Structures are given as C-alpha cells and as structure tokens.
C-alpha cells in the first residue's frame, strides 16, 4: 500500500444558504480544494452525505455533483449517518493507497435548513434503530439525553460540569470565519440555557446548517517536500450496535475505542503522541465519551479534562474542537467529518491564528455516526 497525503482543502461557511443548492455548496468546496492544491483535474470523486434523499429529494448525489463540476470520471456517494464525511474520506484513502487511482477528491456536503425543523428531526432520527428506538417515540437528542442522564447518575457529575466543553467550542469558533455560531458563551449562559431534552440543554447541542468541505488525496511520494502537504498516518473504522440499549456497556463508545486503536496501530502511535483532537461534540456528553474511549481520560472522568482547562488550544494537554467543533462551527451532518479533516490540515499547516496549537505536528479527527454505531478515526501528520 502506498503512503498518502492531503494536498488541497476547501470549505464553505456553515450557514442557512437559502440561495444555494446542495450542488452549489459541493462545487464551491470542490473548486476551493482544487485551487488550494494547484491542480486542474482529479481521478475520482467521493461524496459524503446523509440526508440528500430525505430532505433534498435527491439521490445519486455523486453523479449530480460530478455533472455540476464538469467531471466525467468515477463519482460515488457514501452514507453512514453523521460519519458519512469520514467514511467517504476513508474510501478515498484506500483507493489512492491501493494504487487504483492517483488522486481522490472527497467532498462532504449537506443542505439541511430548507426543510422544516420537524422534518429535519425526523430525518436525523433515521440514524437510530427504527424498530427498537424510533418506534418507541424517542428522538435522536432524546437518546443522547438518556445516555447523559445515566452517565451523570453513574459517575456523580452535575450538568454544570459539562459547561467547559461548550464554552471551549464557542471561544474557538469566534476565530473561525466559516463557523455557524462564532460567538463566545459563559458558564452563566450555559447554566441558564433552556432544556431541549433533560439533561441536554440548548448549549449542550450542536447546531445544524448547510455546508460543504473537501480535501484532495494523492500519493505522498508525489508531493514529498511540499510543506503544505499533510500525511495521512492512520485510518480506522468500527461499528457497534445501532440501538444503545443493546450495548454491553452503553456508557462506553466501543466503536470509538476500536477505530482509534486501529488508527493508532496503523500510525505506530499512542494517544500521548496526539497534539490535538477534533472530536465529534454533537452533544457535550459525546465529548466526554470520546475522550475516554480514545485514551485521554479514564472511564467516567471525561468532564475532568474540561474542568481542569486541559482542552483549550493554548496550553491544554489535549486541545479539542480547535475551530469550534460541531457545537459552534456547526454540524451539517454528512459534511462534518470533512470539516474536521480540513480543520486538522489547517492546524498542521499553522493556519489557525488565535486558536493555533503551538508546535502541532500530529492531529486526530473522529467522526461519529448515530449514537455511536459507526465511528471513523483518522490521524494526520505534517509531512
């Protein structure tokens, strides 16, 4: 297998893009990445998307976007709920690493805000088990609330103990021009925010939006010596039961542990080697569970990292969500995994300004589908 690298990145601002279609958004990110790579063509296009068939009434999205950008080669859409972006990225890696192609453009895209909130909620709920969860009337946020409620009961945490996760994400988003919610919040605002599904409040939950992010993958040998190239050291994926109640340990993300372990092993690294972690903070409870599953905290002790100021870009032991995360950068679900990749590349290139992690050489991104059923982890390094 060949070593591979990212040579170009592109993204759109996450927003309510009333005047842009899903193909417009994907095309904008695509051409931005192509320009960043100083390339004129690609061999294949991989699209990560979850909801186009449900919200936009548009399937066969690979062909739709290929047609829009004027590309006539191989193009395919991949779906694994909210981890669709990272799944498409992993497919691109494998295709280039195997030598089947010499360049793969991966675009994560989602157009969500044209639909009514109830329609979006119903569409997102399809990431859960339709027979054993949706039939009981529980929403996706409700499932995460049940997990958070049990976590607080089991380990003795209070709701306020999760505040640093949201505060950190918002503080970082202030410096990200592509972020959906680029404003700071404080603990008082967190404590007083309205409940969505107890104990998850409005400031525990990520915001949806429209957006697209893209990255161009090529053989490392072809860009060796290019200071803007970022090597992909590890790529791991794993699944767990779709329904939370079927898991042996509902408070441990087994798929996160396995996908991270596979990425660590492939990169010949351990968690202490990671300089920053773009985790999937769809809800604040997922920040705690991801940190624990990936080795950065003991089980039940994830919130301690936030309370001890260990997650911030400046001086934190393991900086997370350095560009705002899902909470404040936004969560256009099928595109989120690619935003994480783009932001990781920015960190490794030293392009993050006020939220730059000093001396960052190795970064990890983890994208979660469903309530932990499909999880993909990538480790990147300055080439």
What report would you give on this structure?
The chain is built from 14 helices and eleven strands. The protein is an alpha/beta fold and 383 residues long. A hairpin with a 4-residue loop joins strand 10 and strand 11 (374-382). The two termini are 17 Å apart. The model has no long low-confidence stretch (mean pLDDT 97).
Write the layout of secondary structure elements.
Layout lengths: L3 E8 L10 H16 L6 E5 L3 H4 L5 H9 L4 E5 L5 H14 L6 E7 L6 H8 L15 H16 L7 H11 L13 H6 L2 E3 L2 E2 L9 E9 H4 L6 E10 L14 H14 L8 E3 L5 H10 L8 H6 L17 H5 L3 H17 L12 E8 L4 E9 L1
Parallel strand pairs: 2-3, 2-4, 9-10
Antiparallel strand pairs: 1-7, 1-8, 4-7, 5-6, 8-11, 10-11
Helix pairs in contact: 1-3, 4-14
List keywords for this structure.
Peroxisomal Thiolase, Chain A, domain 1, single chain, 383 residues, nine-stranded mixed β-sheet, alpha/beta
């Amino acid at each position: 297998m060949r070593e591979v690298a990212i040579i170009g990145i592109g993204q759109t601002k996450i927003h309510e893009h009333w005047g842009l279609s899903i193909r417009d958004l994907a095309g904008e990110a695509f051409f931005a990445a192509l320009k960043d790579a100083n390339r004129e063509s690609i061999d294949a296009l991989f699209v990560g998307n979850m909801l186009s068939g449900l919200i936009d009434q548009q399937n066969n999205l690979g062909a739709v976007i290929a047609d829009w950008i004027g590309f006539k080669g191989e193009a395919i859409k991949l779906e694994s709920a909210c981890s669709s972006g990272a799944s498409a990225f992993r497919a691109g890696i494998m295709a280039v690493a195997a030598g089947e192609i010499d360049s793969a453009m991966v675009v994560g895209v989602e157009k969500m805000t044209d639909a009514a909130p109830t329609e979006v909620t119903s569409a997102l709920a399809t990431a859960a088990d339709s027979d054993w969860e949706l039939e009981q009337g529980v929403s996706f946020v409700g499932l995460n609330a049940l997990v958070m409620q049990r976590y607080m009961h089991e380990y003795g945490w209070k709701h306020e103990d999760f505040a640093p996760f949201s505060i950190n994400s918002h503080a970082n988003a202030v410096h990200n021009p592509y972020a959906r919610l680029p404003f700071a919040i404080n603990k008082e605002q967190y404590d007083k925010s309205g409940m969505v599904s107890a104990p998850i409040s409005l400031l525990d939950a990520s915001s949806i939006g429209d957006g697209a992010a893209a990255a161009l993958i090529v053989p490392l040998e072809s860009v060796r010596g290019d200071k803007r190239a970022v090597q992909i050291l590890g790529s791991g994926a794993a699944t767990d039961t779709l329904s939370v109640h079927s898991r042996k340990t509902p408070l441990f993300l087994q798929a996160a542990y396995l996908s991270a372990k596979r990425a660590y092993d492939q990169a010949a690294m351990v968690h202490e080697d990671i300089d920053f972690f773009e985790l999937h903070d769809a809800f604040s409870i997922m920040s705690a569970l991801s940190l624990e599953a990936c080795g950065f905290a003991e089980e039940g002790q994830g919130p301690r990292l936030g309370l001890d100021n260990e997650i911030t870009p400046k001086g934190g032991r393991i900086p997370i969500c350095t560009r705002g995360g899902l909470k404040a950068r936004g969560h256009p679900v099928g595109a989120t995994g690619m935003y994480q990749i783009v932001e990781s590349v920015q960190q490794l290139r030293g392009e993050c300004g006020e939220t730059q992690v000093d001396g960052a050489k190795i970064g990890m991104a983890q994208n979660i589908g469903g309530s932990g059923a499909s999880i993909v982890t990538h480790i990147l390094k300055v080439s």
